[in-house]
Every structure is written in structure tokens, then in C-alpha cells.
Write a structure and sequence with these properties.
This is HAD-IA family hydrolase. It comes from Pseudoalteromonas qingdaonensis. Keywords: Hydrolase, Magnesium. Pfam families: Hydrolase. The protein is an alpha/beta fold. The chain has two domains: 141 residues, HAD superfamily/HAD-like (Rossmann fold), CATH 3.40.50; 79 residues, Four Helix Bundle (Hemerythrin (Met), subunit A), CATH 1.20.120.1600. It is built from seven helices and seven strands; from the N terminus they run ββαααααββαβαββ. Strands 1-7-6-5-2-3-4 form a seven-stranded mixed beta sheet, with helices on one face. It is elongated. The protein starts with a strand and ends in a 10-residue tail after the last strand. 36% of the residues are buried.
Length: 230
């Protein structure tokens, strides 16, 4: 069911958030963090640093370069580099730890039902993805589903900044208002799309209290409701 706050104007492009929109990302992130931690725990001196060591390293690199907040990959890589150097170990340990994380991060299988939905929507719209995350869609079965994938960091500031939406419109040769962005977060997806003058559909499936008080054009509680756009 789609609940409308205002009419959706005709659009040419559907933009999708990835994590927790097209698949449940919670167990994936948990597994990826565990894979990183399992490697780090094998390093001499790591356990002696205490439970807060990793978070302290993250805070340190962000404090040194606040622009990192827009790039979750660089935060992790730089925090790992800082952490291993702090305990006197070589860079390859940071690289290995990140690789363990990245491999587990993309062990995703999107349901056949969602894939069929995307294929159906392609008949009417151009499909793209705009994400604040760092999942590599080429590594699982979302490969080749999108004309364009834009990631915070390499492609611009993270949502809710308008950068990624503006870049998408420019790359595709469409007006911002011809893009409908679908995502699970009011704070990043809906606010970002609204900031950029795009249309927005909120997938309200996380049970989270968001800070943003603006309204999406439309609200759904199941991604399959988008069949109504076909």
C-alpha cells in the first residue's frame, strides 16, 4: 500500500538506497564487523588495548579529518592504519583486516521477488542506486541492475547532502524533479531527496525514531508496494 502526502509527478528515474531498502543489512554488517574483529584479535598486542580501542581509533581519525564523515570506507581504512601503527604493526595487517570486512560485507543475496520487481520497473524507468554505504553491488546479484551507482565519498557528500542527487541528474541528463528516490531513512534518504528537489518514497520498515520532520511524497512499509509504479 502506498500512502501519499503529495502527488508523485511523472518521473524518468527511480533511485534506490541499498542497505535495508533492497535487503536486510543488519546481519550482513554484523558478520562483516565480526570478520574484521576475528582477524584483529589474532594480532599481537590487540587484545591488550581494551574494548574501546577500535572506537577510539575511529574517533581520532575523524577528528583529524572531519571530511571523512562522508566516506565510510576511508574512515575504516584510516582507522585500521592508525590502529595497527599505534601498536607497532605493519600496514599489511590493516589491509588484511579491511579485506576480511569487505569480503563479508558483500555476501548478500537479494530475493528473487525484489529482483523481479526491479526488472519490472526497468520497463518504465531508468534505475540507479545512491548509497551512503560501501557495499559493492558487482559482488552479488544486484550486479547489472542499475544504470548508475553513486556512493558517498568517491561521488560526493553523504545523504542528506544533495551532492549525490545533483550528480545523478547531471550524469543522466534529467531534471532533479524527474528522480524519485526510495529509501528506508527519513534522515538521509527522504531529507536528502527533498533537499535536492527530487521526489521521495519512504520505506518505513525500521521502527526507528528519526530526527527529520519533513514529509516524503509517499510512504510504504513493503518494497513490493512499488509494483504500483509499474
Amino acid at each position: 500500500m502506498m500512502r501519499f502526502n503529495r502527488a508523485l509527478a511523472p518521473a524518468k528515474v527511480l533511485s534506490f538506497d541499498l542497505d535495508d531498502t533492497l535487503y536486510n543489512n543488519h546481519p550482513i554488517i554484523k558478520a562483516a564487523l565480526q570478520a574484521q574483529q576475528d582477524y584483529l584479535l589474532t594480532l599481537p598486542g590487540w587484545q591488550e588495548q581494551g574494548n574501546n580501542f577500535w572506537l577510539d581509533c575511529r574517533r581520532t581519525v575523524i577528528a583529524r579529518d572531519p571530511a571523512l564523515v562522508h566516506d565510510v570506507t576511508q574512515i575504516r581504512k584510516q582507522a585500521l592504519t592508525y590502529a595497527v601503527s599505534k601498536i607497532g604493526l605493519e600496514q599489511h595487517h590493516a589491509d588484511n583486516a579491511y579485506q576480511r570486512f569487505a569480503e563479508a560485507r558483500s555476501k548478500i543475496t537479494v530475493s528473487d521477488e525484489v529482483l523481479a520487481l526491479l526488472e519490472s520497473l526497468k520497463r518504465k524507468y531508468r534505475l540507479i542506486a545512491i548509497t551512503n554505504g560501501n557495499v559493492d553491488v558487482s559482488k552479488f546479484n544486484l550486479k547489472d541492475q542499475f544504470e548508475l551507482v553513486l556512493m558517498a565519498g568517491p561521488d560526493g557528500k553523504s545523504k542528506p547532502h544533495r551532492d549525490l542527487f545533483d550528480h545523478a541528474a547531471e550524469r543522466l541528463g534529467v531534471a532533479n524533479q524527474e528522480i524519485i528516490h526510495i529509501g528506508d531513512s527519513l534522515d538521509t534518504d527522504v531529507q536528502g531527496a527533498n533537499n535536492a528537489g527530487c521526489r521521495s518514497i519512504w520505506l518505513n520498515n525500521q521502527g526507528i525514531q528519526y530526527a527529520y520532520k519533513g514529509l516524503p511524497c509517499c510512504e510504504i512499509d513493503d518494497i513490493m508496494a512499488l509494483t504500483q509504479l509499474g
